[in-house]
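Troubleshooting log. The previous run stalled partway through. Resubmitting the same three chains, unchanged.
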Amino acid sequence: MTRHTQLLLSGFSLLILLALLSLIMGAEPLPIKTVLQTLIEGGEEDFIVNQYRLPRILIAILVGMGLAISGVLTQGIIRNPLASPDLMGVSAGAGLAACSLLLIWPDISHLWLPPVALLGGFSAALIIYLLNRWHNPSPARLALVGIAISAFLSSCINFLLVLHPIEVNSAMIWLTGSLWGRNWDHLWPLLPWLITLVPFSFYLAWSLDLFALGEETAGALGVNTQGLQTAALLSALALASVSVAVCGSIGFVGLLAPHLARLLVGSRHKLVLPCAALVGALLVLSADTLARNLAPPLELPAGLLTAILGAPYFLFLLHRYKGY
Amino acid sequence: MNILFFTRQSKLLKPALLLTTLLLGFVLSLYGQSEFSLQASDLWRLLIAPDSGDIKQQVIVSLRLPRSLVACLIGFNLGVAGLLMQGLTRNPLASPTLFAINSGAACLMALNSIGFAFFSGLPGEVATFLGALCGGLLVFLLGGGLGSQSNPLRLILAGIAINGLLTSLTRAALIIADDKAYSMLHWLSGSLSEVDWQSWSQLWPLSLAALLLALSTTRGLNLNALGEQTATSLGINISWLRIRVCFAVLLLTAISVTLAGPIVFVGLIVPHFARALFKNNHFILLPASGVLGAALVCWTDLFSRAIVPPAETPVGIITALIGTPFFIYLVLKGKL
Amino acid sequence: MSLRSPFMFAALLLSALSLMSLQTHAITIDHDAGTLTLDKTPTRVVALAFSFVDALAVAGVSPVGIADDGDKTRIINSVRTLIGDWQSVGSRYQPSLEAIAALKPDLIIADSGRHQSIYRELSQIAPTLMLASRGITYHENLAVLQRIALALDKTAQVKARLKKHQQLMRALKSQFNNNDTYQFAIITDKGMWLHSPNSYAGSVIKELGLSSPLAKNTAEAYLQSSFEQLLKTNPDWLLVGQYTEKTVLDKWQTSPLWKMLSVAKSKQLIHVPANLWSLTSGMLAAEQMAQALADYARP
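Second attempt completed without errors. Output:
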């Protein structure tokens, strides 16, 4: 236990370090003394540090945590280590909802994007889940239904983009998953979801461990399997949808963070959940920091970097996993 | 007239109806929805008294005819590719999109367009075709295609990962080159508007080769449907079958996507209709899926010019919009 | 001291008057996000669209930062020669807010079509003017130019330059005495987009009194056109700006239908720089475009 606690603590300190680094680096690199001063009492660089970089860093951490925990819950319920919230069509549904808003009413305030995207992501995931459960549910079927529905939703997005070609670029930026232009306004809607759902997932940790032994075994040991599945999946969907609603689709985090966590601390959900949250936060934060600093002042979308980092590792995992 | 005669008549009825639908779509697309107000009479005049100076006839010959031919052949290819995928994986939800062929083509096309590194040196179509092949091969190899045990879930997940990566790269390229973004977007949704005789001359040889390869796998696929162990015990080499099928699917889809961009749902839906009409013999299902696919793409191409004239709606969008309700219907009916 | 003392009264009156005079130095401009009040004349300006850079050049103010997509050559020469060097602040769609803040500007001119989502943050850095740039026409752009001039307190200078511009345009207009139809299009390897009279290039062509081959009631600014549609449109003059090296024109020119186009017979197909005709959309660009059209028309 102590070893794991040490691990979690070092992960946490790594996160703080990375956050500080991210505060320093940028199109306009600032010395660390200035950064610390500005954090405490404002000053000349107040905009860059407190209004631009700080909220962005915090959002990256929270979104990373949300996606990672969503991934842990999804993998726990579907009992397949290669499942993820992306599979459930959350990104495509949220993308379609947000794009419809951006393209059909371009003058509307951007504060409407998160709730609308949330609704879209949730609905899409629910449709895929129900279609899967209708007849012969299985992980392969879930994946295939998810792919088909996501393809349909992407085609709808393309249709909207073709009809409104002038707005293509703003939609593209949102679709790829980017933290550009995210500030304190985007942070506040994120917090209540995370504050309620993260402790809730910890509450489910013990039941999830039992569920991993098999549905009947868990039932025999007193776990309400139906309730657990519903609660865990809904929480996973909510966390993923709200993250996508704020930043667009940042892929592979929900898939990889649980794996890396399991590699480090084993399979007990009580440990996997916090570890995955840390790993997810580190992934998204590093992706965003790199995105801002690879070619300043041009900014790449963070979603691209998580894909570039994530896909090869995922394939490596695929290679290693022989049994499922 | 005894009952056998009627049975034989009805056996011919289905293919006849199918071919008629295709032919009708083909002919209509030759003169339908044109800026020049082409009519059937122009087509008739072309057949009996060709005049190379008449602009209307030239439009039909130089622009419409290759476009309709390519549309039909691409539809045929995609229908067959879908059938092969579903036959191999024994999963009615499989489709060529799984293999990340479309996203591979799109990614390399986008990188080539924005002039990224060495990709920009290649001619556009070569880059696209290469991308399609690479995407497909990556998924095939990483999804355990060369292994002795086939694992459909692994294949699917490999496809999802590669798809995710390539789509992100494509979108990033679109963001970086924002002026070219919406010209690429049209192609990315599947469009037949820039197809000409050169495209046809590139399409038919490769398609023919791939279709012959596909034909050679029909016996294997019939037996594969009984289960892998049964098939092996009946003398089918599963690995060799898998390699041939995947190669055929790769070629058929790659050449289609290179010329017309990604057209989705054809490979997913068409085999189901073929099976509903013609039962389960792959030897008959292959041409049936092909003709159904050809009819679908041909008619869709016709509609693509009718939705918001004079602008063209990309074909891929229409096939997706038509395909999904059918897909959901099939899922709910338990057929998938 | 009592308030009724005459000296106090005088002092109060003087301070009130001086306060009022401070107020009259402040400029109030109407823009797409409401009204903006500037207390002093801005000297450090950041422009987030090319048409604004054109306007700044006309007003004689050199911007300290431009969202130039990382490529300085995107600014056309006639504008570049009038302004000094600048810092790039990133792409037009995703300008780096850090880079903008680091320049410590006292005015930011942003595109109300593209930058609505970051208006609040831009306002935190410096007073921000939200004006239309993307998809505007010739006359709309001249109105925007005048508002920028007002913000920079250069109204007189810009007015004089505008008068010269209008004289030039009228002079060039009189040089055209045919009924030929003119069409500008952007071509890439994926297709051709015609710019209608609702686009900038199209509206400049219209301003010169030249006719467009498109239908009168065309509402869109950009129309995608296939080869068949081009054959139907059949303009007398076709001006094309290329975004990619290889384009669909290369393919179309090999078709036997190509020779049926008017421009193929009359050789009135002209390649023009895309960043002048499509990207800049400003007054100086309009002058260059008009001059080029007049030069081509001369026999």
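Takeaways: Chain A is about 75% helix and 0% strand. The mean pLDDT of chain A is 83.
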